[in-house]
Amino acid sequence: EPIFMPKEGDKSKKKIFFDVPKEYLTDRQKQLGTPVINRFGEKAERIAVRRINLPDLSMPASLGKRAGFSLFLPEHRKLATRLINVFMGMRNLDDFLSVSVYARNHLNPYLFIYAYSVALLHRTDTASAHLPPVSELFPEKFVTGSLFSQAREETSMALDPTQRVPLEIPKDYSASDLEEEHKIAYWREDLGINLHHWHWHLIHPFEGPREVVGKDRRGELFYYSHQQIIARYNLERLSNGLQRVRRLQNLREPIKEGYFPKLDSLVSSRAWPSRAANTVLSDINRESDQIQFDLQDMERWRDRIYEAIHTGFVVSADGRRINLTEAGGVDVLGNILESNVLSPNRPLYGDLHNFGHIAIGFAHDPDNRHLESFAVMGDAATNMRDPVFYRWHSFVDDLFQEHKRTLPAYTPQQLDFPGIQIKSVEVLSAGGRKPNEFQTFWQQNDMDLSRGLDFSPRGSIFARFTHLQHRPFTYRIQVENTLAGQREGYVRIFLGPKNDERGVPMLFRDQRTFMIELDKFPVTLNQRNNVIERRSTMSSVTIPFERTFRNLDQNRPTAADALDQFNFCGCGWPQHMLIPKGTPQGMPMQLFVMITDYSKDKVNQPLEGMCKDGAAYCGIRGQLYPDKKPMGFPFDRPGRQGVDTLRSFLTRNMFIQEASIRFQDRVEAPNRGNSTLIRG
Ligand code: CUO
Question: Do residues 90 and 103 lie in contact, with contact meaning Cβ atoms separated by under 8 Å?
Fold first, then answer.
């Protein structure tokens, strides 16, 4: 299967096949004597691959071609780091292509795609290269296994691709309603959400060369992007009558939530392992994965991290004291907790979060006696499917919150923007009669499976997803500027639940951790009255719908084609999941808008022509995080003395609009072409 890598500016959809030097073939391929396979016929472009002196790839080659690959395993991270270093170190595109083709042919496909994607995203000469979405390369990680036998049947029956029908993914395939957690399976198993998470970890690897790992506020971004996942998950739980997620604090207590993913690996021809309800975690000792640790190790790391938080400093590997300061503490803590190579002391603080993924991911076979590979928790492309992911990340988030609770609260002076007052806020949904009502419903869309199948159908074969969607909407904000002259403001928009699980209004202490960021953007405030209008599709946390669902229509050119130049920036919350589901009666919400002084928050850097979509959760390629304030501001810290409700937190530059989310339980047809492509 070819990997596309057109040169700069090449937007053609021409098929490519590689003419590979004999020396690059595997022994089996040499035996068979079929050096060049061109399944695209005459129209395909032939690219001669240059034979170079190949760098030593014996280390990454030690992972079997049919083995699983997990970023959370230190041994696998080492192999990936070696391969990333090789890819990053190739002096020019031709050499990079050459070694990539060789690696594609010889190495484990998961390992290869991961390292190749990281390199593509970080090499300066591949900034405009096309990165195939991982859902097309490995649909097995996103689509239930039963679909592949259907795909085989359908392609053998309907030889003419235009006659094929999309294969519908049943709505309740991974569990039944006997399992309470199944109520939000549609969210956990959403294609866009899982793609976002995979992409986030591609952009922010744990290990690798400095230009790959050492990004601006790297540790803080780990904290914030995952904190927002938990906040969003909790809003989804409240929408479905479930209590907020309980953190997995005690590693010895049985895990109530089971999970049976029903995914089949096409690479290794076996099913992804499941976890029965009430599984108990064990010490891990798996020689084949070169991993051995005790739960007690994790408990020790946890205790040391708690101690560091409360003493206010960590100790580096060379014995220096690093204070957990107001501004930078959370960043240090993020690197330690995750952990990544920026951690100042891995021997002391360990690898807590990653090992949690491993301990849970191997709970079904901790000593490898059954020769089973890791479960979905071990893979960033699949782990958000499992309810336990949120329990584990809630625990991780609570450590960050523990640190944030030691910081002084923001004073009214730190929050206010003197002279600027928000007069009103209104939300208008497209076609909606009622102002301040978000509207949600189901929608269906298709994804092409053909590229990732283990057989080669001619033409496309589509999987049909049913996913949550909302009507696009517009914010309308009236602001008064009583100062003499123009000011630049930074508008920050959050949405939070009004009530808790019991229907009782939430206190600030609680509510602030449920606030989800919807948008953030700069505005010019003229003297006196201003009306700001902003569409939901422009959100700074999301990527456009078209980037999640490519190839919306097999016959028509797609909106995604127009966005090809932005293919590298697939990280970002999916636009179709911007708003939680809400309830049929209308779930009461509070929409929070704040305007801060942009001259203080602005980061001076050129952003012309850069992909800024999803920047709030992902950062911007090669640039600083576009906000000087702590991530999550102003909700990243507890309120000052006397603040017990959101209302008592307000200064004049903030506003609360009471709102609701009304869910309509009906499925709308695929939305083709009319979703907006205009971006700010
Ligand atoms: Cu994203 Cu645990 O960090 O999966």
Answer: no
Q: Kindly report the CA angle at 655 between 651 and 658, in degrees rounded to 5?
A: 140
Note if 372 is an active site residue.
Answer: no
C-beta of residue 660 within 8 angstroms of C-beta of residue 580? no
pLDDT of residue 670: 65
- Angle CA 395–240–656, to nearest 5: 80
| Phi/psi of residue 177, nearest 5 degrees | -70, -5
Q: What gap in Å lies between CA 221 and CA 227, rounded to an integer?
A: 9
CA of 202 to the centre of ligand 1 (A): 11
- Residues 335 and 328: beta-carbon distance below 8 Å: no
Distance 115 CA to ligand 1 centre (A): 18
Q: Which of 226, 229, 358 to mutate to test the pocket of ligand 1 (most atoms within 8 A of CB)?
A: 226
Q: Which runs of E-coded beta strand occur in 225-373? A: 264-265, 270-271, 284-286, 291-293, 313-315, 321-323
Residue 200 CA: nearest ligand 1 atom is: 1
Output the ligand 1 site: residues, CB below 6 A: 197, 201, 226, 353, 357, 380, 383, 393
C-alpha angle 597-495-598 in degrees, rounded to nearest 5: 10
Q: Helix, strand, coil % (nearest 5) of the chain?
A: 35, 20, 45
pLDDT tens digits, 420-457: 999 999 999 998 779 999 999 999 988 888 877 777 67
- Which residue do the tokens 């007069």 mark? 423
Q: How far is the CA of 270 from the centre of ligand 1 (A)?
A: 24
The pair of structure tokens assigned to 53 is: 């002196």
Spatial neighbors of 346 by CB under 8 A, at least 6 apart, are 317, 339
Q: Which phi-psi region, left, alpha or beta, contains residue 241 (left: φ > 0; alpha: ψ -120 to 50)?
A: left
The pTM assigned to this predicted structure is 0.92
Checking if the pLDDT of 62 tops 70, the result is yes
DSSP 193-235: HHHHHHHHHHHS-SSS-HHHH--TTHHHHHHHHHHHHHHHHHH
Q: Which of 338, 437, 517, 546 is catalytic?
A: 338
Q: Supply φ then ψ for residue 275, to 5 degrees.
A: -130, 125
Q: Are 670 and 443 in contact (CB under 8 A)?
A: yes
Give me ligand 1 centre to Cα 334, in Å.
12
The answer to whether 53 and 250 have CB atoms below 8 angstroms apart is no
CB atoms within 10 A of CB 419: 15
3-state secondary structure of 378: helix
Q: Check residue 353 and give its pLDDT.
A: 98
Using a 10 angstrom Cβ sphere, with 0-12 exposed, 13-18 middle and 19 or more buried, the burial of residue 143 is buried
Contact 399, 467 (CB under 8 A): no
Both tokens of 510, joined, read: 């609680």
**Of 527, 531, 462, the residue nearest 151 (C-alpha):** 462
* Closest residue CA from atom 4 of ligand 1: 380
3-state DSSP assignment of residue 405: coil
**387-404 and 329-338 helices, crossing angle to 10°:** 150
- Tens of pLDDT, residue by residue over 258-311, are 999 999 887 777 899 999 999 999 999 999 999 999 999 999 999 999 999 999
- Residue 297's identity, in one-letter code, is D
Torsion sign over Cα 439, 440, 443, 449:
positive
